[in-house]
Amino acid sequence: MSAKIIDGTKISAEIRCELKEEVAGLKAQGVVPGLVVVLVGDDPASAVYVRNKGKACIDIGMASETITLPASTTEADVVDLVKKLNADPRWHGILVQLPLPKQIDESKIINAIDPAKDVDAFHPFNVGKILIGEPIFMPCTPFGVQELLTRSGNDPEGKHVVICGRSNIVGKPLAAMLVQKRKGANATVTIVHTRTKDMASYTRQADILVAAAGSPRMIKADMVREGVVVIDVGTNRVDDPTHPKGWRLVGDVDFDAVKEKASAITPVPGGVGPMTITMLLKNTVKAAKMRSEGR
Ligand code: GUN
What we know:
Bound molecules: guanine
Largest sheet: 6 strands, parallel
Structural class: alpha/beta
Strand content: 15-25%
Number of strands: 11
Distance between the termini: 49 Å
C-alpha cells in the first residue's frame, strides 16, 4: 500500500476561506478581529514565524500588529506590556512568541495574559478548561491535528491514538482533547515518551499515530502496522548540502518507508505546519465573536 497524502496546505486553505467569510460578517457588524504578536529578541526562526502570522491575519481581513522588543528586555517590562494589551480593546488575541530570552520566566508571561485573549491556549485556566471538556480555545498545533484527522475522513472516534511526545504544547493537550466525549474525539489515547520501555510495542497498536517527539525520522516502518494513519508534527532541520539553504526540514517519521505501510500520512513540510497558523486565526476570530456577543 502507498498512503494517501493528507494535504495540510489544502485543508488549511479551505479553513482560511471559511474564516475570511466569518471575518467579513464580523466587520459588517463593526467588529475587526485583531491579533497582536509580541516578539522578544532576534531569533531568526521566530522572526519568520511571527512575520507569517501577521501576513496570515491580513490575508483574511483581520487587524494585526507585531511588537518587537530587544533581547535584553526584563520580565517586568514584558508583563507590563501584556497588561496594557489585555486592556486594549483593539486586540482580541495576544500571542507572545516562545521561546523567550533566558532572563524571562515563560510561565510568568503566560499567566499574565487575559485567558479570554489567550489564543495559544497556554494559560493554566485554558489548559484546565480543555481537560474538563469545556474548552474555550484549543492550542493551535493539537487543534490543527484534530482538524486534519476529521477533515481527511479519519475521525478518531473509537480509534486507538498513540501520541509520541508529552510536551505541554502538543502531546499532553492533544491527549486531553482526543479523549473527550465529543465530536472529533472519543478516542482511546496512549502517550509514549523517552522513558517508555519498548515504545514500538505501543506504536504498533496505533490506528492513528501522532509523532510529536522532536526527533528526526525516529518512527521507522517496523514501528507501525499496515493501514495506520500517521500525523507527523515534527519539524527538524537537517543538514543538506544539496539544498540552497544548506538544510531542509524533515519530520519525526521516516516518511519514505512509513508511507508504504500507512493508509494516510501527512508530509513535512505541507502537513501540520500550515494548520498551526490557521488555527491561531480561528481562535482569534472566536475570541472576537465571544466578546461581541458579551461572552
Ligand atoms: N513558538 C513556536 N510555536 C509557538 C506557538 O504556537 N505559540 C507561541 N506563542 N510561540 C511559539
